[in-house]
Amino acid sequence: MIRIVIADDEELIRGALVALLDLEPDIQVLADVADGAQAVTAARAHRPDVVLLDLEMPVLDGVEAARSLTEAVHTVIVTRHARPGTLKRALAAGVRGFVPKSTPAARLAEIIRAVAAGERYIDAGLAAAAIAEDESPLTGREADVLRLTRDGLATKEIARSLSLAHGTVRNHLSAAIAKLHTDNRGSAAAIAWDRGWI
User: Fold this and answer.
1) Taking the domain 2-132, which CATH number applies?
2) pTM score > 0.85 for this model?
Protein backbone atom coordinates (compact mmCIF):
# COMPACT_ATOMS: atom_id res chain seq x y z
CA MET A 1 0.00 0.00 0.00
CA ILE A 2 1.33 3.45 -0.98
CA ARG A 3 0.58 5.90 1.82
CA ILE A 4 0.20 9.56 0.85
CA VAL A 5 -0.49 13.02 2.25
CA ILE A 6 -2.19 15.63 0.05
CA ALA A 7 -1.70 19.39 0.48
CA ASP A 8 -3.69 21.95 -1.51
CA ASP A 9 -5.20 25.21 -0.29
CA GLU A 10 -8.16 24.90 -2.67
CA GLU A 11 -10.65 22.75 -0.81
CA LEU A 12 -12.52 21.60 -3.91
CA ILE A 13 -9.31 20.46 -5.65
CA ARG A 14 -8.00 18.80 -2.49
CA GLY A 15 -11.30 16.98 -1.94
CA ALA A 16 -11.35 15.77 -5.55
CA LEU A 17 -7.78 14.48 -5.30
CA VAL A 18 -8.58 12.64 -2.07
CA ALA A 19 -11.73 11.07 -3.55
CA LEU A 20 -10.06 10.03 -6.82
CA LEU A 21 -6.88 8.66 -5.29
CA ASP A 22 -8.80 6.79 -2.57
CA LEU A 23 -10.42 4.80 -5.39
CA GLU A 24 -7.03 3.30 -6.27
CA PRO A 25 -6.65 -0.12 -4.61
CA ASP A 26 -3.00 0.42 -3.69
CA ILE A 27 -3.08 4.08 -2.56
CA GLN A 28 -4.18 5.23 0.89
CA VAL A 29 -4.65 8.93 1.73
CA LEU A 30 -3.48 9.39 5.32
CA ALA A 31 -4.19 13.12 5.61
CA ASP A 32 -5.19 16.13 3.55
CA VAL A 33 -4.19 19.64 4.58
CA ALA A 34 -4.52 23.22 3.34
CA ASP A 35 -1.01 24.68 3.45
CA GLY A 36 2.67 23.86 3.22
CA ALA A 37 3.40 24.05 6.95
CA GLN A 38 0.54 21.62 7.69
CA ALA A 39 1.93 19.32 4.96
CA VAL A 40 5.31 19.20 6.71
CA THR A 41 3.64 18.53 10.08
CA ALA A 42 1.39 15.80 8.61
CA ALA A 43 4.31 14.16 6.82
CA ARG A 44 6.36 14.06 10.00
CA ALA A 45 3.41 12.65 11.97
CA HIS A 46 2.24 10.02 9.44
CA ARG A 47 5.50 9.18 7.63
CA PRO A 48 3.88 8.66 4.21
CA ASP A 49 5.63 7.27 1.15
CA VAL A 50 4.66 10.27 -0.99
CA VAL A 51 3.50 13.82 -0.25
CA LEU A 52 1.47 15.46 -3.02
CA LEU A 53 1.95 19.24 -2.83
CA ASP A 54 0.25 22.10 -4.61
CA LEU A 55 2.86 24.63 -5.74
CA GLU A 56 1.06 27.77 -4.59
CA MET A 57 -0.04 27.49 -0.96
CA PRO A 58 0.00 29.84 2.01
CA VAL A 59 2.63 29.70 4.78
CA LEU A 60 5.03 27.49 2.77
CA ASP A 61 4.67 26.91 -0.96
CA GLY A 62 5.09 23.40 -2.35
CA VAL A 63 8.82 23.80 -3.05
CA GLU A 64 9.52 25.22 0.42
CA ALA A 65 7.51 22.39 2.02
CA ALA A 66 9.41 19.80 -0.04
CA ARG A 67 12.72 21.35 1.03
CA SER A 68 11.66 20.96 4.69
CA LEU A 69 10.97 17.23 4.36
CA THR A 70 13.60 14.53 4.64
CA GLU A 71 14.63 12.47 1.64
CA ALA A 72 12.80 9.50 3.16
CA VAL A 73 9.56 11.15 1.99
CA HIS A 74 9.19 11.53 -1.76
CA THR A 75 7.41 14.67 -2.92
CA VAL A 76 5.36 15.45 -6.03
CA ILE A 77 4.41 19.01 -7.00
CA VAL A 78 1.07 19.44 -8.77
CA THR A 79 0.44 22.89 -10.21
CA ARG A 80 -1.63 24.85 -12.67
CA HIS A 81 1.14 27.47 -13.04
CA ALA A 82 4.03 25.35 -14.21
CA ARG A 83 6.90 27.63 -15.12
CA PRO A 84 10.30 26.24 -16.09
CA GLY A 85 12.18 28.25 -13.45
CA THR A 86 9.90 26.79 -10.79
CA LEU A 87 10.73 23.31 -12.05
CA LYS A 88 14.43 24.02 -11.57
CA ARG A 89 13.78 25.29 -8.05
CA ALA A 90 11.71 22.18 -7.28
CA LEU A 91 14.40 19.81 -8.52
CA ALA A 92 17.00 21.63 -6.42
CA ALA A 93 14.72 21.07 -3.39
CA GLY A 94 14.65 17.30 -4.03
CA VAL A 95 11.16 17.06 -5.52
CA ARG A 96 10.71 13.68 -7.25
CA GLY A 97 7.71 14.55 -9.43
CA PHE A 98 6.44 17.70 -11.12
CA VAL A 99 3.13 17.61 -12.98
CA PRO A 100 0.46 20.04 -14.20
CA LYS A 101 -3.00 19.94 -12.62
CA SER A 102 -4.36 19.00 -16.04
CA THR A 103 -2.89 15.51 -15.53
CA PRO A 104 -5.67 12.87 -15.59
CA ALA A 105 -6.30 11.13 -12.24
CA ALA A 106 -5.31 7.68 -13.56
CA ARG A 107 -2.01 9.09 -14.84
CA LEU A 108 -1.39 10.87 -11.54
CA ALA A 109 -1.86 7.54 -9.73
CA GLU A 110 0.75 5.98 -12.05
CA ILE A 111 3.14 8.84 -11.32
CA ILE A 112 2.64 8.41 -7.56
CA ARG A 113 3.43 4.69 -7.93
CA ALA A 114 6.60 5.46 -9.89
CA VAL A 115 7.76 8.08 -7.38
CA ALA A 116 7.02 5.74 -4.45
CA ALA A 117 9.22 3.15 -6.20
CA GLY A 118 12.09 5.65 -6.26
CA GLU A 119 11.70 6.95 -9.80
CA ARG A 120 11.47 10.56 -10.86
CA TYR A 121 8.71 11.94 -13.11
CA ILE A 122 8.85 15.36 -14.77
CA ASP A 123 6.23 16.44 -17.29
CA ALA A 124 7.94 16.33 -20.72
CA GLY A 125 6.71 19.76 -21.82
CA LEU A 126 7.99 21.38 -18.63
CA ALA A 127 11.33 19.63 -18.91
CA ALA A 128 11.82 20.85 -22.50
CA ALA A 129 10.95 24.43 -21.51
CA ALA A 130 13.32 24.28 -18.52
CA ILE A 131 16.24 23.26 -20.72
CA ALA A 132 15.62 26.22 -23.04
CA GLU A 133 15.16 28.81 -20.28
CA ASP A 134 17.88 31.20 -19.14
CA GLU A 135 19.36 30.69 -15.69
CA SER A 136 18.27 33.08 -12.98
CA PRO A 137 20.67 36.02 -12.58
CA LEU A 138 19.61 36.40 -8.93
CA THR A 139 21.64 35.31 -5.94
CA GLY A 140 19.87 33.22 -3.31
CA ARG A 141 19.45 36.23 -1.01
CA GLU A 142 18.12 38.41 -3.84
CA ALA A 143 15.55 35.73 -4.60
CA ASP A 144 14.63 35.55 -0.90
CA VAL A 145 14.00 39.29 -0.63
CA LEU A 146 11.98 39.36 -3.87
CA ARG A 147 9.89 36.39 -2.69
CA LEU A 148 9.04 38.23 0.53
CA THR A 149 8.42 41.44 -1.43
CA ARG A 150 5.91 39.54 -3.54
CA ASP A 151 4.29 38.34 -0.30
CA GLY A 152 3.69 42.01 0.57
CA LEU A 153 6.29 42.50 3.29
CA ALA A 154 7.85 45.92 3.81
CA THR A 155 11.64 46.23 3.70
CA LYS A 156 11.94 46.33 7.50
CA GLU A 157 9.76 43.21 7.79
CA ILE A 158 11.93 41.42 5.21
CA ALA A 159 15.02 42.37 7.22
CA ARG A 160 13.46 40.94 10.40
CA SER A 161 12.29 37.79 8.64
CA LEU A 162 15.71 37.06 7.13
CA SER A 163 17.74 38.32 10.12
CA LEU A 164 19.45 40.93 7.93
CA ALA A 165 20.17 44.60 8.41
CA HIS A 166 17.67 46.95 6.76
CA GLY A 167 20.43 48.39 4.56
CA THR A 168 21.48 44.91 3.44
CA VAL A 169 17.93 44.20 2.28
CA ARG A 170 17.89 47.50 0.37
CA ASN A 171 21.18 46.53 -1.28
CA HIS A 172 19.82 43.12 -2.34
CA LEU A 173 16.69 44.77 -3.72
CA SER A 174 18.74 47.34 -5.64
CA ALA A 175 20.90 44.62 -7.16
CA ALA A 176 17.85 42.56 -8.15
CA ILE A 177 16.13 45.59 -9.69
CA ALA A 178 19.25 46.32 -11.76
CA LYS A 179 19.66 42.70 -12.89
CA LEU A 180 16.03 42.48 -13.98
CA HIS A 181 16.15 45.87 -15.76
CA THR A 182 13.18 47.36 -13.97
CA ASP A 183 12.67 50.45 -11.84
CA ASN A 184 11.05 49.16 -8.64
CA ARG A 185 10.99 46.18 -6.32
CA GLY A 186 7.37 45.26 -7.08
CA SER A 187 8.12 44.93 -10.79
CA ALA A 188 11.30 42.98 -10.05
CA ALA A 189 9.35 40.55 -7.86
CA ALA A 190 6.68 40.16 -10.57
CA ILE A 191 9.29 39.46 -13.26
CA ALA A 192 11.13 36.96 -11.06
CA TRP A 193 7.83 35.20 -10.24
CA ASP A 194 6.74 35.07 -13.90
CA ARG A 195 10.04 33.46 -14.85
CA GLY A 196 9.85 30.98 -11.98
CA TRP A 197 12.96 32.27 -10.24
CA ILE A 198 11.22 32.84 -6.89
Assistant:
1) 3.40.50.2300
2) no
